[in-house]
Specification:
The chain is of the alpha+beta class. It is built from 27 helices and 20 strands. Strands 1-2-5-4-3 form a 5-stranded mixed beta sheet. The protein has a 4-stranded mixed beta sheet with strand order 12-14-13-15, with no helix packed on it. A 4-stranded antiparallel beta sheet has the order 18-19-17-20. Helix 1 packs antiparallel against helix 2 and helix 10 packs across helix 11. The chain is elongated and about 100 Å long.
Length: 739
């Protein structure tokens, strides 16, 4: 581990003296105007945070000066340094975000405000189940990026964490391990994601130092030579390669650095090998113009040094699953020390570093949505501009104006991070926690204050839902004008609740109607609903009662069956199968529709509306094809020209054949989710209904799925029944026959 160097005096000097010393040691690249602004910031820092101490024993002022000094070493602009110095000043000595804005400008005030919100998150400990830990860590990293409207805020957070990790040696072991674990799981991957390698590798090394102290010491001891010696080795390799590439006419950029201790330990764990079998303790990367140059450079490398068997991977000919491309080889380099060489084109490097195969994507083995990845790429582009010495101020403003985050990340009172779409409300949050929490929601607290349920949330807020035991959803929640719900999931849960209440209401209504009808018919026998319901293709008696309550099944028809023999008494003799396979339904014949006043006239069903018994129907006389039968509500009939109306004739259904099958189209609209098509298909299978056509489409912007089925039914009663069953599937929003 390299000993860090700060432009700060010894610890025995007071805070004001430390600030003056730091200001005097600033590089010449900061002009006088910037120094004056930094002086004002240091004065405010000493006033607000003077004589305050961290648990490490260091004063808050020296801690923030050290953070700013790390940012100076990263060549950050003066606004970033001021934001780092003023971190934590809002709310102290009466300082507000508005006052900071008045003195230092809106951009700095917003950064300081974002840092204050992030600091609040750092002071709470999450109790997360092990199975949810990885998701929580990822959401926490997203939360940090989501709160920060300006990428520089994240850099301040990382620099502050780095200095904190450098300072925790005096803490007790348990506290050191706790902070190291947070650093390893959240902050180091965040630095990796943004490509801030200087901070990333040191955070990882410091984490390993306190989490695995024996392993850390063992690896450090076995590394042959200090880091400076390894860096000298790399410099020698780079000079040699550049010389031979130039002689061969290959335009190449060669760079490299020694592999840090954490990376070595990680590879030892992954490959289950000892350090002696790690061949990339020293590594260089070669960037060339085209693929031919990649293989030419590889030939030069293998010509210079002996190749180590089984340590060559051609990811150009065979890219990784994330389309990462590069040549990886290991050789015995100068001084007989192993050396890893990566060779790729500039385009491959750009793709690996900033594209869909970004380095962090496959290193962390985590899928990231396109919008979030684009945000990270823009952040990294800005960092590259800064590294190249270009002023990135305009880029930051363009980034904030062009890119609006698609999601927010809020916290439960137990500090679990919950991802929601931008604009989501406290009520969306309640349903994201659990359906019952949403259904019983009667209020919400955000950061300890009561807020309206339709108030949009912001990243970093802590949300607590207030519930009542007997509370229930309001229909106002579904109104888009009131703005209670943003997510399709929450809206669907509310609809499902009301649908369930309607089901119970229809059951009671059906039970009452059946009892009245039995009384009218003077039938005293108790109805065996669990048996009768099977005749109507229902699984439970309550489903039959609900159908009666919805007027889908005639109550008189059911009442007259109460005194009939049981179903199992009407079955065939025992020698025959108990459940014979249903006969294949046949297409409807033309005799099942009768044309008024005409005998034996050819008829066929219209394919636009697909009528089934006993829809209300009309006939349309066609030329040479007899009569086409349409539903009366068919959209084509409604749009028919007036001169064609004379060809409409009255038709009605004849006695229906028991095994007739009528094709009909069904439209199902639902909240998109996994298993939706499977659940829908199960309904058709359970009801014995043949599906002869399926067409599905998903709208990712609205999280909606639209499914169109063509099925065969015997009559309207069976059709209405299957419509009810489809409507009871979770997340289904609408089921109907298209006009």
């Amino acid at each position: 581990m390299v000993k860090p160097v700060y432009n700060l005096p010894e610890a025995d000097q007071d805070d004001a003296s430390a600030a003056r010393h730091w200001l005097g040691a600033l590089p010449a690249s900061y002009p006088q105007a910037d120094r004056e602004r930094l002086t004002q910031a240091c004065d405010l820092l000493v006033r607000c945070r003077g004589n305050q101490y961290l648990e490490t024993g260091e004063t808050q002022v020296r801690h923030l000066l050290s953070t700013a000094d790390i940012l100076v070493q990263l060549s950050m602009d003066v606004d970033t340094l001021i934001a780092a110095l003023l971190n934590g000043c809002i709310g102290r000595l009466g300082e507000s975000e508005e006052q900071v804005e008045e003195q230092f400008g809106r951009g700095i005030a917003r950064m300081v405000g974002d840092l204050a919100r992030i600091d609040q998150l750092a002071n709470v400990d999450a109790i997360i189940a092990a199975k949810d830990q990885h998701e929580h860590e990822e959401n926490l990293r997203r939360l940090l990026l989501g709160i920060a409207e300006d990428v520089r805020v994240v850099l301040v957070v990382l620099a502050e964490r780095l200095h904190l990790m450098r300072s925790i040696k005096s803490l007790d072991e348990e506290r050191r391990r706790e902070m190291a674990e947070d650093t390893r799981r959240v902050y180091a991957p965040l630095a990796n994601r943004l490509g801030v390698w200087q901070i990333k590798w040191e955070l990882e090394d410091l984490s390993l130092r306190y989490l695995e102290p024996e392993e850390y010491k063992r690896i450090a001891k076995r590394l042959d030579g200090r880091r400076a010696e390894r860096e000298s080795f790399i410099a020698e390799v780079i000079a040699t390669l550049k010389k031979y590439f130039a002689e061969a006419g290959i335009r190449a950029d060669v760079s490299g650095r020694p592999k840090h201790i954490y990376s070595i330990w990680r590879k030892m764990q992954r490959k289950k090998v000892d350090i002696g079998q790690i061949f990339d303790l020293r590594a260089v990367r070669v960037l060339v113009e085209d693929i031919a140059s990649c293989y030419a450079a590889l030939g030069i490398v293998h010509g210079l040094w002996k190749h180590i068997p089984r340590e060559f991977d051609d990811y150009i000919a065979t890219p990784k699953g994330n389309m990462y491309q590069s040549l990886h080889t290991a050789v015995v380099g100068p001084q007989d020390k192993p050396l890893e060489v990566q060779i790729r084109t500039w385009d491959m490097h750009k793709h690996a570093e900033l594209g869909v195969a970004a380095h962090w994507a496959y290193k962390e083995s985590k899928h990231h949505d396109a919008a979030f990845q684009r945000r990270v790429v823009l952040m990294r582009n800005w960092l590259e501009l800064k590294n190249e010495g270009t002023d990135g101020g305009d880029f930051v403003e363009r980034f904030k104006s062009e890119f609006e985050p698609a999601h927010i990340y809020v916290l439960t009172p137990q500090s679990k991070v919950v991802e929601l779409p931008m604009g989501a409300t406290a009520l969306d949050f309640a349903y994201a926690i659990h359906s019952e929490v949403g259904n019983r929601c009667r209020g919400a607290k955000v950061d300890g204050s009561i807020v309206p349920l339709n108030q949009p949330l912001a990243s970093g807020q802590t949300v607590e839902i207030l519930t009542q035991k007997n509370a229930a959803p309001s229909r106002d929640w579904l109104s888009p004008h009131h703005g209670y719900l943003k997510t399709a999931k929450a809206r669907n849960r509310v609809r499902q609740w009301f649908k369930l209440q309607s089901f119970d209401h229809h059951v009671e209504a059906g039970r009452s109607l059946l009892e009245k009808e039995l009384t009218r018919l003077q039938i005293d026998e108790k109805p065996q609903l669990e048996q009768i319901c099977r005749r109507y293709n229902f699984h439970k008696g309550e489903d039959l009662l609900a159908a009666i309550g919805r007027s889908e099944v005639a109550v008189g028809q059911v009442a007259r069956q109460v005194g009939e023999p049981r179903i199992d008494e009407q079955k065939e003799p025992a020698a025959k199968p108990r459940h014979p396979a249903p006969a294949k339904r046949r297409p409807p014949s033309r005799t099942e529709v009768i044309v008024e006043g005409v005998a034996d006239l050819m008829t066929h069903m219209a394919q636009c509306c697909k009528p089934v018994p006993y829809d209300e129907i009309l006939g349309f006389v066609t030329r040479g094809r007899g009569v086409t039968v349409h539903r009366k509500d068919c959209a084509n009939l409604a749009k028919m020209p007036e001169q064609e109306m004379a060809r409409l004739i009255d038709v009605h259904w004849a006695d229906q054949s028991l095994d007739a099958a009528y094709p009909v189209d069904l439209l199902v609209i639902a909240a998109d989710r996994k298993g939706l098509l499977r659940d829908t298909s199960s309904v058709f299978a359970d009801e014995g209904i043949d599906v002869v056509g399926v067409n599905t489409a998903s709208d990712r912007t609205k999280d909606l799925a639209t499914m169109r089925f063509t099925v065969e039914v015997k009559d309207v009663a069976e059709l209405k029944h299957v419509l009810v069953k489809l409507g009871q599937i979770p997340d289904v929003l609408d089921v109907r026959r298209p006009h």
